Amino acid sequence: MAGGRRKARSIALQALYEIDSVGHDPEETIKRYLEENALTEENTEFARSMVRGVVKWKTKLDAQIKRFAPAWPVEQLAVIDRNILRLAIFEVLIDNKVPVKVAINEAVELAKSFGSDNSPKFINGVLGAISTMNTNNNP
Q1: Do the beta carbons of residue 107 and residue 85 sit within 8 Å?
Q2: At how many degrees (to 10) do helices 79-89 and 100-114 cross?
Q3: Between 104 and which of 60, 85, 127, 138 could a Cys-Cys bridge form, CB atoms 3.0 to 4.6 Å apart?
Q4: Mean pLDDT throughout 68-85?
Q5: Taking a C-beta distance cutoff of 8 angstroms, is the pair 1, 37 a contact?
Q6: Cβ distance 84 to 13 under 8 Å?
Q7: Number of Cβ atoms within 10 Å of the Cβ of 32
Q8: Could you read off the pLDDT of 15-43 as tens digits, one per residue?
């Protein structure tokens, strides 16, 4: 199951990257990625809901990135890092269906696979700060 979820996150990330970098339609983009990759029905819906959620909550997600990575303007972040953060922050602060540690670990793994050499550390740092804030605000 975990491997299927990781693949679904990877597909969602690739779709979000394309949507963010070239402005393609979110529904058409995720549909195409899902047609090209074999996932269970449950993981297909998971990937689709992740893309829809990130697109819907993009402004709020970007505000969290600005808050916890103030030295890095969101629009100047690498497109892949920005979308890994959006995806993970969506899972942590809005979706709330996986433990925070799982969302962070999955984001770091995506950063290792798709990002630069510095991406995993950067992603972990930002998400760690958000996690600490989230834990402190929810006793």
Answers
A1: yes
A2: 160
A3: 127
A4: 94
A5: no
A6: yes
A7: 14
A8: 999 999 999 999 999 999 999 999 999 99
**H helix and E strand count, the chain:** 7, 0
CA–CA distances in Å: residue 110 to residues 10, 89, 137: 7, 14, 27
Give the pLDDT score at 134.
66
Using alpha carbons, select from 60, 56, 115 the residue that is nearest to residue 84: 115
Q: How many angstroms separate the CA atoms of 29 and 95, rounded?
A: 21
First to last CA, the chain: 30
Describe the chain by its helix, strand, coil percentages, rounded to 5: 80, 0, 20
CA atoms of 89 and 31, how far apart (whole Å): 23
Q: What six digits make up the tokens of 136? A: 């402190």
DSSP code string of 57-105: THHHHHHHHHHH-TTS-GGGS-HHHHHHHHHHHIIIIII--S-HHHHHH
